[in-house]
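Ticket #554: bound-state structure for TPW.
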Amino acid sequence: MTGKRAGSNLTLATSLLQGLKDHGARELFGIPGDFVLPLFKVIEESGILPHYTLSHEPGVGFAADAAARYHSGIGVAVVTYGAGAFNLVNAVAGAYAERSPVVVIAGAPGAGERASGYLLHHQARTIDTQCAVFREITCDQAVLNDPARAPLEIARVLRSARERSLPVYIEVPRDMVGAKTGAVPVLERRAHDADALAECTDEILEKLSQASSPVIIVDVEIRRFGLEDQVAALARKLNIPVVTTFMGRGLLSASPDVVAGTYLGAAGEAEVTRLVEDADAALLLGVILSDTNFALSRRRIDPRHAMLAIDREVRVGHHAYPNLPIDALVEALLARAKPATGRAGRVRPPAPAYPRNMPADDKPCAPSDIATAVNDLFDRHGPMPMTADVGDCLFTAMEIENTELAAPGYYAGMGFGVPAGIGVAATGRRPLILVGDGAFQMTGWELGNCRRYRLDPIVVLFNNRSWEMLRVFQPESAFNDLDDWQFAALATSLGGHGERVTTRNQLKQALDAAVARRGVFSLIEVMLPRGATSKTLARFVQGFKEARARQAPG
Ligand code: TPW
Ligand code: MG
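RESOLUTION: The complex was predicted; output attached.
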């Protein structure tokens, strides 16, 4: 534990905010309401952490989630009771699914109001229904109704968020905000068994050394725990190629020498698919075993050859090692691995050929042209951190050089891209946001908050006037046709710059101009024909239909 602040005259609110900061929070996102107005007052006046208010709670949740992903630490969402908190449920469910440690700070009625005998505004069923709902989608909860116990409760919950890399829930009854309390300690991490770790490490290293074609597959937990450089070092030492999952796209962007590409099964590069499906030993680090990651496998990874570390547990074949944190495992593997000699040359995978040199002509843009144009842009100006929404924009992102990316590749909740990009911008970096018109209809309005905070994300909006992702599976349905909302024209009234482009030359010019334009958001609305998809989405749909046909009875 760190020491208590002597002679503390902390209130519960200041102690909570300082505790969040001491646990790695760098900013807060929120929307006030009467049940959190007193807390927001302290947030604003104490200045302990910078705060960003957005327009709709889903955006708050996505921004906090993306900030957590980019910090490899916690993100914080502050909302009012009931109407505010329930609006956050979907974003927190997505954060749970994708293992992003979002700390939900929710207001609640005070003790006097609880005893008033009235139903309270924003109450759904019972007063505690809010907490019950969040219990399902968070890994630990604290209701701060006792100032004496609050510091330890907060400390336990924040430790849970960091150790499990999952969302947590902290409820602040509004009459507790000014209560006197102590400082929030930073608790020591829970111990793991050193013998179990050594045995597990040796078992994994033995299997890898026996294998003739091993592979390391990485997914988001290695980023959540800040392990990308260590994993790259491990791959180099063992001379084993690394692939990311679909969800893990963007990992190890700083170590292109070890990354062979992204595993997309039947929809991916044949060489990458072979690396995974022909492997006789597969070390899966932080991998979510989801359908989006593995449903297009032509051949499943043999469980006897698989070694999986996720959620503080390691499975080696049929052996399970509970309570082994992935960071301890990676550290031990790196320390005990002997440099491999037998497999010389394997670690340098063939560099995937991402498309480059888009002809800047007057031809209309196709989705994959956007990937080419972004690759060219990054070549000219350096890579930018990215966020993407669900839709063809996410598949197009697979054709962009492996670059830092936050996207809902597993939970697939639409509306993530724009507010997530705002969350990234709040961390001090300038993101490139990829989003479809359908998703933009959901949360694109959040861009209107950029001017107040001088955030200047670049948004590339794939406008096909269509829910194209749905159309590819069900072309006969007319409901997939959307209207033309003229998004670029809205940008000025939202405080940014908007431009509609239809040709490849216009796209290139607009991207260059956006990079040069600082201080306001830039919205590049790329008009795409209905029915056109990126090459990757076309392959994905084809592979998906084949997989479905294989599974169909009869
Ligand atoms: C919260 C279902 C998945 S993809 C999609 C829908 C409606 C269409 C996306 O349209 P957009 O992109 O953004 O124009 P594109 O490339 O397909 O044209 N509600 C939520 N999440 C999901 N995933 C859906 C519905 C869906
Ligand atoms: Mg669309």
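RESOLUTION NOTES: Confidence is low (pLDDT under 50) at residues 1-7.
TICKET STATUS: resolved
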